């Protein structure tokens, strides 16, 4: 059954200066926005969605339901900008959740936290090439170890445009390309904000990994000593 929550919204014209990627093809489009945490990916996605809506297109935004930091009914940027959204476990459930009629009306679908969706590639193909919609995808290209994260890099060959954003290094203020995890947790997926992660430049990423590695060895040796001193 479709949810009663209004999934499609129109936004009053507020930022008419924002540029929308120009549509030149009659069929759909895929636009990808990547970068480290705090780079402005969500902000850019919301601006583009808002611009599309201001241009009279019908829009909806999806985020992963794994990220419950700000509740499940809106997408929120690190500086507090907000838009209503669908929080889903996978993208293939979207059509059924929103309802087929509402889905058919959509021109533009935004996806945030794209690294958490395993079915990203299939969804982008189907939505752009079969259903002729514009998909705007924002997500982390790399995890805290700079490994390819989820399927984000897999959709680059499908894309009309790719935008790589940077943040400011928290340690020196230079351009930050990477996300450093400050804690000693090692799972790939770990939801969190500034308490767990910080954007860093190349130098401070390398230094940070050395410092974190050294801290981890000290902690391990302390644990071993405690084990033998009991
Ligand atoms: N080190 C930083 N570098 C850049 N922006 C930062 C930093 N720390 C906090 N911010 C804030 O984060 C905002 C970007 O938030 P957001 O769009 O949610 O980023 P992302 O989705 O890439 O994590 C910036 O506009 C800025 O106000
Ligand atoms: C680097 C990294 C990040 N995550 C998580 C942390 C956040 O919940 C999201 C990214 O949010 P943002 O909108 O880009 O700020 O991803 C993770 O699970 N694993 C990682 O390695």
UniProtKB/TrEMBL annotation:
* Keyword annotations of the record: ATP-binding, DNA synthesis, Kinase, Nucleotide-binding, Transferase
Which reaction does this chain catalyze? thymidine + ATP = dTMP + ADP + H(+)
Q: Which SUPFAM superfamilies match?
A: Glucocorticoid receptor-like (DNA-binding domain), P-loop containing nucleoside triphosphate hydrolases
Residue ranges of the TM segments: none
Q: Name one GO biological process term.
A: thymidine metabolic process
Q: One Pfam family of this protein, by short name?
A: TK
Note the InterPro entries from the entry.
P-loop_NTPase, Thymidine_kinase, Thymidine_kinase_CS
UniProt record similarity statement? Belongs to the thymidine kinase family.
- Cross-referenced PANTHER family, in alphabetical order? THYMIDINE KINASE, THYMIDINE KINASE, CYTOSOLIC
Q: Tell me what this protein is called.
A: Thymidine kinase
The organism encoding this protein is Gossypium hirsutum (Upland cotton)
